[in-house]
Specification:
Blueprint: H1 2-12, H2 16-25, H3 32-35, H4 45-57, H5 65-77, H6 85-95, H7 101-113, H8 117-126, H9 132-144, H10 148-157, H11 163-175, H12 179-191, H13 198-211, H14 214-226, H15 233-245, H16 249-258, H17 264-276, H18 280-289, H19 295-307, H20 311-323, H21 330-342, H22 346-359, H23 365-377, H24 381-390, H25 396-408, H26 412-421, H27 427-439, H28 445-453, H29 460-472, H30 476-486, H31 494-505, H32 509-520, H33 528-541, H34 544-556, H35 564-576, H36 580-588, H37 596-609, H38 612-625, H39 631-642, H40 646-658
Helix pairs in contact: 1-2, 2-4, 4-5, 5-7, 7-8, 7-9, 8-9, 9-10, 9-11, 10-11, 11-12, 11-13, 12-13, 13-14, 13-15, 14-15, 15-16, 15-17, 16-17, 17-18, 17-19, 18-19, 19-20, 19-21, 21-22, 21-23, 23-24, 23-25, 24-25, 25-26, 25-27, 26-27, 27-29, 29-30, 29-31, 30-31, 31-32, 31-33, 32-33, 33-34, ...
Length: 671
């Protein structure tokens, strides 16, 4: 025993030569302290192997299966080309330990971890005695390699299944996007009376999050509470993520606030929930409270500001991130460059481009396509073409970005030239060309005909693009014809959104709302864009009561938190109905700040209904948000004129002249 204690002490000081000397002077039984992890020996796995092979040279061998199991475990954890496992396997056979269940399982696990799944199966099949662990190891090996049929077969024929067995299959199915099947396994698990653990529930909750189903998620939350598993960070964090993905931020926040302990992932999941919904002020409050911010935290906050086009704040977070020593990745830069393109912030975008060159991020293919898109969005097609030439022309994303750029700048002939020169085309290529012809008011029927003649399948994105094209050209019959062709086989919401919004914009309110009712009878779940179309239809027809019902339905039934566009529709509806006080109250209660569109809507409604008090407040806020333009001042002066306050009209007009303000020219087009 004294030699084992001395060996342990030596290993703590990583003095392998001394340890080996001790081993050579005593029987292997003394070295079980090194192999047995329960003796609190330092986990020097490579040292274990060296001691084993050094000892064998001197005729000293393990005298217990526990020592062998520990050596095999060392080989499993030390996966190099020459980890020694096969040699140890030979020793196991020669020494007669191959019938020991613990040694067998360790060797099966060794081959599984090395990726030798067929060799592991041969050994598994040759074993005279197997236990549940043996079966679980093989199932886990097949799952890891996505060989689900083999895993499923073993799972079905297992003589006895425990929590690990069910959890392994659930995780494997979830990993391979078979979310429904993973839930079916869980139901079977409950039927046979096997209790889940935190890993089981964590995987299942992730599956529900991907499926977007609240009912199953609520059921799993109940299971977690009854089983006492809600306290596990993994379970609670996944539940928060599920609620956020289902637009149930209120439920997510309650759970988040109740958690006694949170990790970085928990904070980031809640932050992402706010950011994705456009609730950036709430996101910023949470961001400021995060104890330790990582790259994900910073990138999520930047993305949140980008989503609502608050570029200055996004860039401010980016600068603070860099000053704190956090290096941005290509995803963060793509977000910022994309925002610069949308807001035509050419100077900021070029600075970011220079930064990507300095840091070597420009080599990322998707970033190259984003830079092409950025310059095109800023109407710098010469720079967009230059970036395309120096970038990766083998990448279809860059081709698509250039086509979309020409389309955006109404250079459809140039877009068509690039389109014709493409080595290959995808759905985005076709959709961009379709959008181009719709944008300039020219028919893209030849494209539709080409797609039909070439038997190019109409997937949901392409059919949505065609519906949108016909709707924007005013051809409702064409839009309906395309939609009816794909209605029964569509699996996503995109075509439904295109037709509902297109009908609403052309005043076909009854048909738009009827199609929404048809959608509710399908298995396709409406999203926030769907309700923008529905509420827009109500706005066009002045259907206040119905609009309020749909607004409540969106929150109560579909658990979708309204964004600024939904609130904008409701303010418009209330304003058209003369209920200006309610409209202003709704604005004040929004979780985000009102933008110029909403304040402009309230001001226009105030003029229509002669409400000077609310109109003045709206004009003041509009002037603060948009000081360089005079549209709000013009509306205010017209409101003063309507109520006969000519002195105020004169003062407002003089103020506009002294500040050089002019009303922004209006524009119209077929929507």
């Amino acid at each position: 025993m004294i030699y084992a204690l001395r060996l342990t002490k030596f290993l703590h000081s990583i003095n392998l030569s001394s340890s080996s000397i001790l081993l050579l002077n005593r029987k292997w039984v003394s070295t079980n302290s090194i192999q047995n992890p329960s003796r609190r020996v330092v986990n020097r796995l490579q040292d274990h192997l060296q001691v084993f092979f050094e000892s064998r040279k001197n005729g000293i061998y393990p005298t217990s299966e526990f020592a062998l199991v520990s050596v095999i475990k060392s080989c499993t954890s030390h996966l190099t080309k020459t980890s020694g496992g096969e040699e140890i396997h030979c020793f196991v056979i020669k020494s007669g330990y191959d019938s020991n269940i613990y040694v067998q399982n360790s060797l099966i696990n060794y081959y599984v971890k090395r990726g030798y799944i067929d060799e592991a199966r041969l050994m598994f099949d040759s074993c005279l005695k197997l236990d549940t662990a043996s079966w679980n190891i093989m199932v886990a090996g097949y799952v890891k390699l996505s060989r689900l049929e083999d895993a499923w077969y073993l799972f079905e024929v297992m003589p006895e299944r425990d929590c690990v067995s069910f959890t392994t299959m659930i995780m494997g199915l979830a990993k391979n996007n078979k979310w429904v099947e993973s839930l079916e396994i869980f139901r079977e698990m409950k039927v046979v009376g096997v209790n889940p653990n935190e890993v089981t529930l964590g995987s299942l909750i992730s599956a529900c999050s991907r499926l977007g189903g609240s009912r199953n998620g609520d059921m799993l939350h109940t299971v977690a509470i009854k089983a006492g598993l809600e306290a596990f960070i993994l379970v609670s964090t996944n539940l928060i993520n599920m609620y956020c993905n289902s637009s149930r931020l209120a439920d997510a926040k309650i759970l988040f606030d109740e958690m006694p302990e949170k990790n970085e992932v928990t904070w980031n999941v809640m932050l992402n929930g706010y950011a994705k919904m456009g609730l950036v002020d709430l996101a910023k409050n949470l961001f400021d409270r995060i104890p330790v911010r990582d790259l994900v935290s910073w990138s999520t906050m930047i993305d949140g500001y980008v989503r609502v086009d608050r570029l200055d704040e996004a860039l401010g977070i980016y600068r603070k991130m860099v000053s704190d020593g956090v290096t941005p990745n290509e995803v963060t830069i793509v977000d910022l460059v994309s925002a610069c393109g949308r807001l035509m912030a050419i100077d900021e975008g070029r600075q970011l481009h220079c930064m990507t060159i300095r840091t070597g991020l420009e080599c990322f293919v998707f970033l190259q396509a984003t830079l092409v898109h950025f310059y095109a969005s800023c109407a710098k097609m010469d720079l967009a073409c230059l970036q395309f030439e120096v970038g990766c022309k083998d990448n279809i994303s860059s081709w698509n970005a250039l086509i979309a750029g020409f389309v955006r700048n109404k250079m459809v002939d140039s877009a068509r030239q690039v389109f014709n020169a493409m080595p290959e085309r995808d759905v985005i290529s076709w959709s961009s060309m379709i959008a181009g012809y719709a944008q300039i008011g020219q028919s893209g029927r030849w494209l539709h005909g080409y797609i039909h003649n070439k038997s190019i399948p109409l997937n949901d994105n392409l059919s949505a693009g065609l519906v949108d094209m016909y709707a924007k050209l005013g051809s409702i019959s064409g839009a309906l014809e395309v939609f009816q062709q794909v209605q029964d086989r569509t699996t996503t919401i995109s075509p439904w959104n295109a037709i509902i919004y297109g009908l609403a914009m052309h005043g076909h309110v009854d048909m738009s709302l009827r199609l929404f009712s048809d959608l509710q009878r399908t298995n396709i779940k409406p999203n926030s864009i769907t309700f923008i179309g529905v509420l827009s239809a109500c706005c066009h027809a002045g259907l206040l009561d119905q609009g309020q019902q749909y607004f409540d339905c969106m929150r109560r039934v579909y658990k979708i938190e309204p964004n600024i566009k939904h609130f904008g529709c409701m303010v418009d509806l209330l304003g058209r109905s003369g209920r200006l006080a309610e409209a202003e109250e709704l604005m004040m209660g929004m979780p985000m700040k009102a933008d110029i569109v909403i304040w402009g809507t309230l001001l226009a409604a105030s003029r229509t209904h002669g409400n000077l008090e609310i109109g003045e407040r709206a004009a003041k806020n509009l002037a603060q948000l948009e000081p360089a333009h005079g549209a709000g001042r013009v509306l205010l002066s017209n409101l003063y004129a309507d109520v006969g306050r000519w002195d105020d009209v004169f003062v407002t007009r003089r103020l506009m002249q002294s500040q050089g303000l002019k009303k922004s020219p209006g524009s119209s087009g077929v929507m």
